[in-house]
């Protein structure tokens, strides 16, 4: 085994540490990263847990001390997370920014579709067993996200004269999208929950990286060239973006 592999391989290490703050206890997940220079903490919005990143030579004792010192920060951040909205009957979920109530239709064929009630309320109908509702809604939203993002990315790529080789739809917690120099784009499926101008901005943002692989002034000029809603979309994400992570999360 290579020397580097031996350095980072610590199979006996615990995966988590327990932190106490007042009368509350929190499980903190440990993550060792070879490029980390210090201990850092972040909150995973969908898993609803604290993650502590450790430098290569960090110790579990030091990690636990660091987590305990920041117990108040962990409690405050977890306490501020929006209430979970699981994909169950009655939950209201935004689809392209428009609220839709989830309705179970056990006696009908199909998977997931939209309807409008006489009252004007938008609903998202889910067929089949209620135990499969969560998965079917997730699958539906991912398909819709892929469809909208592929369309938007293709339009922006044509405007800029670049080629998108591949689009991946994931559940990214730290960023809404990413781009590789090889032309592969990755997006969070949760963008389908946001208004269309937000999804369009993110598509334009990542496609623009195929022209400028940075966040320089030149990059932002490219984004502005193909997207007229940059400021509006960034403001929406700053205000409402964190709320999108609560959907599909079990209480």
From TrEMBL:
Q: Which residues form the signal peptide?
A: none
InterPro entries cross-referenced by the UniProt entry: UTP_pyrophosphatase-like, YgjP-like_metallopeptidase
Tell me where in this chain the YgjP-like metallopeptidase domain is found.
Answer: 39-240
What's this protein's name? Answer: YgjP-like metallopeptidase domain-containing protein
């Amino acid at each position: 085994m290579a020397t580097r592999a031996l350095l980072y391989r610590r199979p006996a290490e615990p995966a988590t540490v327990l932190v106490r703050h007042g009368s509350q206890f929190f499980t903190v997940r440990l993550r060792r990263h070879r490029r980390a220079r210090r201990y850092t903490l972040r909150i995973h919005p969908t898993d609803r847990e604290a993650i502590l990143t450790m430098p290569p030579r960090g110790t579990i004792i030091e990690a636990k001390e660091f987590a305990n010192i920041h117990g108040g920060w962990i409690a405050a951040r977890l306490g501020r997370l929006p209430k979970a909205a699981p994909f169950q009957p009655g939950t209201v979920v935004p689809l392209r920014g428009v609220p839709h109530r989830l309705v179970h239709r056990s006696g009908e064929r199909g998977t997931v579709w939209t309807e409008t009630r006489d009252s004007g309320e938008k609903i998202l109908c889910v067929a089949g067993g209620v135990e499969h509702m969560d998965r079917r809604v997730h699958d539906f939203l991912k398909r819709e996200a892929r469809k909208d993002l592929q369309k938007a990315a293709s339009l922006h790529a044509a405007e800029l004269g670049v080629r998108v080789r591949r689009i991946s739809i994931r559940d990214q917690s730290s960023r809404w999208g990413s781009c590789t120099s090889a032309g592969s784009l990755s997006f969070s499926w949760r963008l389908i929950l946001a208004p269309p101008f937000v999804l369009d901005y993110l598509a334009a943002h990542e496609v623009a990286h195929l022209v400028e692989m940075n966040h320089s002034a030149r990059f932002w000029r490219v984004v502005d060239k193909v997207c007229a809603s940059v400021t509006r979309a960034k403001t929406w994400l700053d205000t409402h973006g964190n709320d999108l992570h609560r959907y599909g999360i079990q209480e």
